[in-house]
Amino acid sequence: MSSSPGDELSSLHRRLLESWNRRDPGLFASCFTDDGSMVGFDGSGIDGRARIEEHLAGVFDGHETASYVAKVREVRSLGSGVAMLRAVAGMVPPGASDIEPAVNTVQSMVAVQQDGRWRVALYQNTPAAYHGRTDLSDALTAELREALRSR
Prior knowledge:
The chain is an alpha+beta fold and 151 residues long.
């Protein structure tokens, strides 16, 4: 493995979001460590790979979900075998062709190397609400629309 985790963490983040877009809870959960944690958009916390898979199976069975489009902003090494990724993401609702700005998100992911492979230890979605700062919200939506056009 290279000394810089940038490409590998970006790839892990992409796999995570692609598994969501495919509505595959097992593939999504497989990106995590056994004791990994996820904090959802609504603030709910789910701990452990098995519980993450179970939780997402219920989400996917319960309703049709929107698809992510994302842009990685930063990958930073935090020490030997530990790194952090920061990204922004938007969601395209089922049947739509554009992002729904009300659910834009800022994503954080902490990953660790286990047996030569990067896995998610913590993944968090935070609403990009920007409370009254419409210029920031509009700029993020424009950035994500550009990412959507270039995929």
